[in-house]
Specification:
Layout lengths: L9 H16 L3 E3 L7 E5 L7 E5 L6 H22 L6 E5 L14 E5 L4 H5 L1 H6 L3 H4 L6 H27 L5 H20 L2 H8 L1 E2 H5 L5 H4 L7 H22 L1 H22 L4 E2 L3 H17 L1 H25 L5 H18 L7 H25 L2
Parallel strand pairs: 3-4, 4-5
Antiparallel strand pairs: 1-2, 2-3, 6-7
């Protein structure tokens, strides 16, 4: 079959051009939907229009258009649940919509009628949201050559995205987590073997009055002490499960920063409310890992939306509720670490997702949070 025998109609070519723009220029990702015929759904949760629909089926009257709106809302409801999104501004681009149908912008749903490339220049919606779109649809290639170019560009972009996702989610050896588990176990066992267990607990625990008197090292050391074998085993199991995942996703240096900021903020909030009491254990830092996983999962919620909703959030809520119901649990440390871990993850960023601007804001907010906790711990609580 020669190039001259291949005919690509104007509508299908426009679909390809639009796909090329939204995927290669705006990093939208196709959404696979069951039963969605003659329409393509794309998502980019970082854009103002988080969902773009390209609808090529013929809609010839108001009844069909209203049914399309009804079906679109049902699909959006499922996407919201999967991506943990409260609002999904959606742009519907109709390529074969009768002029008898009146288009009105609805809540979260913006319709645009586009029959040919020139219609994009006339649309105020397109001008405001994607001002470069009309220019990006101009190609020197024609016919089959244009089809091949667009297809190759889209495939190359998708392959690059796939490589990035594989790089992030490929399991890696959690060296920092192993070191942290080893330190916690060693610090638990060695004092017992040397007969100085009580001395170590008294001299290194997180104790507000001692810290305010100048023993600041207790803000760190208390998180490596445990009161009993079950306390140690429970925390080390949680540290291994959560830590190995987060270290693999975020990378070693990011993970180390998150852990120690979580540890510090947990200790600061702990001594704010503990009075003359003492606190020990890694659980505050572990809650920080949960907060960091939430932030990571938010950026990769297309992949981890169900995991966050069904596992991480219930785990956090269950452990916080347990802390409020059971005496002897330092929930202030848990809350301090949880918030600290989330803020620290904003500061260090998520690979391939976070911008420098977002990380800069994260650093500022994290420093403000630490300064606030220092005021609460060293001024307010005295």
């Amino acid at each position: 079959m020669t190039e001259q025998n291949v005919v690509i109609d104007d509508k299908n070519m426009l679909v390809m051009k639009l796909l090329h723009y939204f995927i290669t220029e705006k990093s939208y990702t196709p959404i696979i939907l069951q039963g969605a015929e003659n329409e393509i759904w794309l998502e980019n949760l970082e854009e103002d229009y988080k969902i773009v629909r390209i609808v090529s089926s013929y809609i010839h009257n108001e009844e069909q258009y209203k049914f399309d709106i009804f079906r679109t809302r049902r699909i959006l409801k499922k996407i919201k649940a999967k991506t943990l999104s409260f609002r999904l501004n959606t742009l519907s681009i109709f390529l074969d919509l009768s002029t008898n149908v009146e288009l009105n912008e609805l809540k979260d749903l913006t319709p645009v009628r586009v029959v040919k490339d020139g219609d994009l220049k006339k649309s105020e919606v397109i001008k405001n949201a994607f001002p470069d779109l009309p220019k990006k649809l101009k190609f020197t290639e024609k016919g089959l050559q244009l089809f091949v170019k667009i297809t190759n560009d889209i495939n190359a972009h998708n392959q690059e995205d796939q490589k990035k996702a594989e790089d992030v989610f490929q399991p890696k050896v959690p060296i920092i987590t192993y070191i942290l588990v080893f330190l916690n176990v060693a610090i638990f066992l060695l004092p017992k073997l040397l007969g100085i267990d009580d001395f170590v607990l008294n001299f290194f625990c997180t104790h507000g009055p001692s810290i305010r008197s100048g023993q600041w090292y207790r803000l760190i050391t208390g998180a490596f002490l445990h009161g009993g074998i079950f306390h140690l085993l429970f925390n080390m199991y949680a540290l291994y499960i959560l830590g190995s995942q987060l270290e693999s996703f975020m990378g070693r240096w990011r993970y180390a920063v998150i852990y120690f900021i979580s540890l510090l903020t947990a200790s600061l909030l702990s001594i704010t409310f503990s009075g003359n009491g003492a606190s020990i254990g890694a659980s505050g830092a572990i809650f920080g890992l949960m907060g960091a996983l939430l932030y990571f999962g938010y950026h990769y919620r297309v992949y981890l939306g169900n995991v966050i909703k069904n596992q991480i959030i219930p785990l956090i809520l269950l452990n916080l509720a347990f802390g409020f119901l059971v005496t002897g649990v330092d929930n202030a440390a848990h809350i301090g670490g949880l918030i600290g871990g989330a803020l620290a993850s904003i500061s260090v960023g998520v690979k391939y997702k976070s911008s420098k601007f977002e990380q800069g804001n994260g650093v500022i907010v994290t420093l403000i949070y630490i300064a606030f906790l220092c005021y609460m711990a060293f001024v307010y609580a005295t």
